[in-house]
Each structure stands twice: as C-alpha cells, then as structure tokens.
C-alpha cells in the first residue's frame, strides 16, 4: 500500500516517525527495495532515517547499495558524504563529493558541500572555483551566493562581488546584509553601505567581521569614537572562524590614532 508518489511517500514516512512508529516507517521503505518501483529516494530516505538514529554505518550501507543501483543519483553521494563525516572519515567524505561531482546527473548540492569544505580548509581559491561553476550554471542559492560574494570581496574582485550581492537588496538577513553593505562600501556607495551594515549589526552585533565592517564605515564618515569602540570590540570577540585578521583590526586602530 506504499504510495508511488515521492512526496506522498516522504510525507507518510515523516508522519510515522512523528508518531513514534519508526519501525513501521523503516519496514515500509525496506519493503520497497525489493519492488519494481524502487528508486534512489528509497535508499536516500532509509539512509537519512539511519542518520537521524545516529547509525552512520547503516546510512553508509544504504548509500553504497543505492549507488550500485543508481550510480548517477546525487542524493546518494550526498548521503555517503554525510555518513562518512558522521564517522569522522574526512578523506572518504571528500572522495564521495568528488566522485559524485564527476558521476552524478545533478551536482549542485554536491558542489555546495564541496565549496564549504574548501572554505573550512582555508582553500579559498578552490572554493571560489566551485562556487563560480554554480554561478555560471545559474545554480547559486542565497547561501552559496553570499559565500561567493564574500570570498570575492576578500580577493578584491569588488565589481562581481557587488553584482552577486545585489541579489540581497531589501534583505533583513544579517549575514546577507553584511556582505551587501561591505560590497557597497568597496564600491564607494557609503549611503547604501550604512543602510545594510546597520541591519547586520542589529542581527549580529557580537560578530567580529560585522563589527570591523561597521567600524570601517563609521570611520569613513568621521564617526571616529564609534569606530574605535567597534574595532576594539571586534578585536575582543575575534576568533578562528572570522575572515577579518587581527592584524587588519590593529592596522585600522593605528590608522585612527594617526588620523589617517
């Protein structure tokens, strides 16, 4: 009696799990694996279910079995990547992303994960290359567009960064607003920079990167006391995940002291 419609099946499985009937949910999917209507979604849903139950080994098994039957299924390469990460098998996880990128019929999600891994590893050029491929294919999401624009700003490619970031016009998301505000600042549009950095500070006032951007824009408008306060706060809050370097903050503070 399992429905053939993918969305209805997913809805049924989700409902069974919400009702605490996990065994029944899993049994209905396992039964489908031996049917003529089995698809990659059945393996993916079983793998996702296993991961929700903290069973990454079982999830990886479903990914491998699914890929044996559906070798171009992006969802199964994604499942393989996530399960390997759950098992702290970083090299195998990266291999799953790379293999999926070369073999899957659709690769946008794989490329998004791959770009994240490059960013985390500090390989920003590789991340930009992957994100640019998504941009060229028209497959950027808000998150990947924000990542690409941010990386391009860091690399000094201000025109393209602003072109991408302007997709966030009117946003109230502080992360997107920070990127757009900084892109406007680099383009010399202080009015728009101030508008969006204000949104960013309101939502992310304890973020060192946002505070550095806000302080720089304050300084450009002569609000030196506010700028100093924000630079010092950015230095206090700075951590390993921040894009802005401590040396950049110190240099900006020195510039305020010398009146530059």
Walk me through what this model shows.
α12 (190-203) runs antiparallel to α13 (208-220). The protein is mostly helical and 260 residues long. Helix content is 74%, strand content 0%. The model has no long low-confidence stretch (mean pLDDT 93). The chain is built from 15 helices and no strands. The chain has helices at 6-18, 22-32, 40-52, 56-69, 74-86, 90-103, 108-120, 124-136, 142-154, 158-165, 174-186, 190-203, 208-220, 224-237, 246-258.
Question: What descriptors fit this protein?
Answer:
260 residues; mainly alpha
Query: Percent of residues in beta strands?
Result: under 5%
Number of E-state strands: 0
Distance between the termini: 74 Å
Helix content: over 70%
C-alpha-based Rg, rounded: 23 Å
The number of helical runs is: 15
Low-confidence stretches: none
Q: What is the ordering of alpha helices and beta strands?
A: HHHHHHHHHHHHHHH
Any idea what the shape is?
elongated
Protein structure class: mainly alpha
Largest sheet: none
* Overall pLDDT level: 93
What topology does this entry show?
Elements lengths: L5 H13 L3 H11 L7 H13 L3 H14 L4 H13 L3 H14 L4 H13 L3 H13 L5 H13 L3 H8 L8 H13 L3 H14 L4 H13 L3 H14 L8 H13 L2
Helix pairs in contact: 1-2, 2-3, 3-4, 3-5, 4-5, 5-6, 6-7, 7-8, 8-9, 9-10, 9-11, 10-11, 11-12, 12-13, 13-14, 14-15
